[in-house]
Amino acid sequence: MRFKGLDLNLLLALDVLLDEKSVSRSAERLHLSQPAMSAALRRLREYFNDPILKQHGKQMISTPHALVIHDELKGVLANLEALISKTAFFDPLTTSRIFTITASDYLTQVILVPMIKRLRRVAPKIQLEIVPPADSTHELLAQGSIDLVILPEQMLSDEFPSELLFEDQFVVVGCKENPIFDKKMTEEAFYGSGHVVVKLGSRRPFSVSDQQLETRKKARDNDILVSSFLLAPEMVVSTDRLTVMHERLADFFAARIPIVKTALPFSFPAIKEHVQYHSARSNDAGIQFILQMIKAESIRKTNKNI
Hints:
Shape: elongated
CATH superfamily of the largest domain: Periplasmic binding protein-like II
Number of helices: 11
Largest sheet: 5 strands, mixed
Oligomer: single chain
Number of strands: 14
């Protein structure tokens, strides 16, 4: 189909070419031959009267005009996908649609893992892709590459709607054999111990709890850095180290490995976890279905009697 002389199929090719900056990788992503992808790039260059991609050393880089096109194209494709989703019939029992959700390993463990078990019964063919938060999360949400993100309040984007899922407390966790837990935890004992710290992306190098601890301006011996919330409790076993972690995750691990939890010896704010989605997808029946499943699981975790 053509619009003002442009084959609209080329728009998707343009988006992928500007993402990958490589004809061969773009061809692989779109399941095309390399000659076909090269032909698409040639037609795009002719239509826009611009090289689109230029060779720079061993790499291809986008031209200034292509960068402007790409920003606008992402919005167009996201709105087009939203339009298709609104008009498409959604039946949980039969759909094989793929949903992409961004969530930390902590949230995956306490919310998504039990949700997926329930999802299997009501929507057996749905496919989920769960990806960790990254520096590009908000950009990918804006582009429509991510359907839902579950993030703490501090990491939300101001551009999109969000809903509070639940709150969790932070606790001190250590090995059951650590004598520091034989009596009430003191601030002196806390800061006198070695700590396991979770380090995330480059823009937000530390977790929310560790960022908040840094604001107290008290030095800690952060001698172990890990990239996963699920690794932190394992690192304190058979050591005298401590870690500060979400209480729900601490309870999950306490039933599996020899760790113990206690309250922090000073006032510390709770963490508020939210779910966020693109405003253009608010009427997407599929996304609303997954959203309700996530919210229902959050309620179950809040009220353990459910």
